[in-house]
Amino acid sequence: MMEAKRYHPLTILFDLIIQVEHLFFPALILFVFNHDSTNAFITYGRIVFYIYVGGMLAYLFLKWVSYKYRLDDTAFHLYEGIFTKTKQTVPFSKIQNVNRHTTLLHRIFKVTSIRFETGMVGDDSRVEFTVISVNEADRLEAHTKQAVRLEIEPEAEGKEGESSEEIGTLHTTPERVIHFTPTKKEIIKASFTSLSFLGMITLLIWAYFKLTEYIDVEEQVVGIYSLIMSSWIWITLTAVGLLVLSIIFGMVTTYIRYGKYEISSDHDRIYIAKGVIEETTFSIAKERVQAIKIKQSLLKRMLGLAEVKLTVVGGDSDSDKDKQDVSSLYPFLPIKRAYEMIAEILPAYEVTEKMTSLPRKSLWVRLVRSSWIWLIGTGALFYFKPNIWGWEQAWWVISIALTLIILVFEVIEFYNTRYTLNDHFIQFQTGSLTTTLYISKREKIIEVNVKRGLMQKQLGLASIKTVNRAKPVSHRGVTDVPIELAEGFYQWYMGRRKEIKVK
Amino acid sequence: MPSRISAPQKSLSKDAFKVELITEGITVIIGLVILAVLYYLDNRFAWKEWIGWCLHGLLVIGVIATIWSFVEPYFLYKSWRYDIDEDFLQMKFGVITEKHFLVPMTKIQAVSTKQGPILRKYGLYTISIKTMGSSHEIPGLPGDVASQLREQIAHYAKLKEVE
Predict the structure, then answer these.
(1) Which positions ≥6 away from A75 have C-beta within 8 Å?
(2) Contact A490 B2 (CB under 8 A)
(3) CB contact under 8 A, A503 and B94
(4) Fewer Cβ within 10 Å of end Cβ, chain A: N or C?
(5) Tell me: the pLDDT tens digits for A292-343?
(6) pTM, 2 dp
(7) Does B85 reach chain A within 8 Å, measured CB to CB?
(8) ipTM of the prediction
C-alpha cells in the first residue's frame, strides 16, 4: 500500500522537449524568416504562438500537479485529468509484459521509462511512466511481480506438492541465469548477415545529395573521379579503402544495435536487454508466452543462423519509440544454440527437429492455385503488349519469366513446408525465401479452423489454421495438408479440455 | 470432414434460406439497378470505349452472380451445422469451400442475438459470438432456440481459464 504519488517532475521537461520539437518550424517561420515583417498574418501568428506556449506551459504544470498514481496489493490506480477527473484501475494480474526504454536523454538525467503492457484493446491497454527514477521503476516492477506471484502461489503449492519453504527460497532469491550475450565473433557475423555494411553506400549517397544542396561540389567530384580513374593504384586504393570503411561502418552500426544483448531468465520470467546508446529491456512471465517463432532468411539459412521471436499478448512494436521488435531474442543466433536456448528458458516447450513434409499432390494444388496469377498476368501482357526497349516480343518473354518465378517459389515453399503434432504442441514451418517455424502450446491456442476447397476435397487435402492471442491477433496455419492430419488436428485440439485449469 | 469425431448435428431453421434468398435478391436488384444507371450514363454521355467493355464484363459477372445467389442460399443452409457442449462451440458450413470452426467455451467473451427486418418477418434470430481474437455468427435460428442457445453459451462461457 502507498499514498497516491505524482509522476517524476522531469516528466514536465520531457513533455516540453517534445513540444519544442513540434514548435520548432512554426517558430522559425514566425521569428527568423520573417523577423522584420509587418504583415498582419505574422503579427497575429505571433500572438497565437505566445498564447499557445503559455497555455501549454500551464497545462504541463497542471498535469504534473493533478496526475497521480497509486499501487495497492493487487492493482495500479491511476488518477488522470485536470478538470474532468478519471480514475483507472489496472490489476497486476492483467499485465502481460514489462518494457523499459532508456533513451540518451533519460541516461543524461539518470532516469528511465517503463511500460506495463496488458492485452486489452484500446488506449487503456498499458500503464506507462514516461519518466521515472530507476529505483522507482525497479520497485514498481518488483511489486507487480510479487503481487501476481502471491496470487498464483497457493495453487502451485497444492498442485505440485512442494513444501512452502522451498517455494519461499526459490522466490525470494530467484537466480538469474544469463543464456546469451553475443561474442565479438558473433557481432562480426551478424554485421555481415544483416548486410549492414551496405548502409555505408546509402550513407554516402545521402551525404552527397545533402552536400550538393548547399555547395556546388560537382566539379570537385568529377575531378576526383578522373584522378582515381587515371591509374590502377588509385582505383585499388579507393576500392580497398571504401570496402574497409563500409565493413567498419557495418560493424559499428551492428554493435550499436545488437552489441549489448543479454538474454537471461529466472524461475518464472524471461529478460531481454539490448542497446548500447539507447537501452531497452523487456521482461515477460514464462507462462505468458503464447508461441515461439523461429525465422530464417535465405542468407541466415545458409549461415546456420536464426531469429527466435516470442509471440506475446501485449503488443510491442506499435509505438514509434521502439521500432525494433523487443520480443525478439537475438536475431542472429546459431541455429543449434537457438534450439538449446528454447529448451533452457522455456522448458515447457519442446522443439521437435523431425517434421513431416507435404504429400506430392499438394504441390499440384498449389501450382494450379497460383496459375491464376499467371493467367491474369499473361492476359494483361497479351492485351497491352508493352514495348520494352523497342522490343515487341517482350510480352511472352515476361510471361515465361513470370511462370518460372511462380514455379520456383511454389516449389521452394512446398519443400520448406513441414509440420508435426505432438502431445501438447503444434509445430509447423512455412515460407519460401524466409521460413518461419511456429510452435504453440495447445492450451495457448484460442481457436482452430479447418477449410477445404473444391480441389482439396477431390485430393483429400485440407488447410488448417490456429488463432493465438497477440497484438494484432495471430492467425497461422498450413495449407494443403492431408485430410488425416486435419482430422487429427481437430481431435488434438479437442483434447485441450483435459489440460486446461479453470478458475 | 470429421469422420472419427462427433460432427456437429444441429441445423438452421428451414426458413433461414428464405431469409438469405431475400437478402441476396435485394442485393442483386440494387446491383443491377446501379449497372443499368451506368449503362444509361455511358450511352447518354458517350464515355470512352474501354468503359463500355468494363460494363459488359460487369454484366457478365452480374448475371453469373444472380444465378449463383439463387442457388447458394439453399446449399449454404443445407451445409450449416453447429453444436455446443460444455467445452466447445463447433460450426461447419460452406458450399464450395467447406469451413470448420472449433471455439473453446472458455475463450468466448460475448454472445448476443440480433434480428433485422427480414429475420423478424420469419421470427428468426442471428447469434453472434465474440472471442478474444475473432467473431462468429450463426444465422437464422428460431426465437426460442436462439435465446436458449445464447443462455447456454453464456453459462458455459462463464468459466474462465487460468491464463
Answers:
(1) A89, A90, A91, A92
(2) yes
(3) no
(4) N
(5) 999 999 888 888 889 888 888 876 544 434 444 567 788 888 888 888 888 8
(6) 0.79
(7) no
(8) 0.84
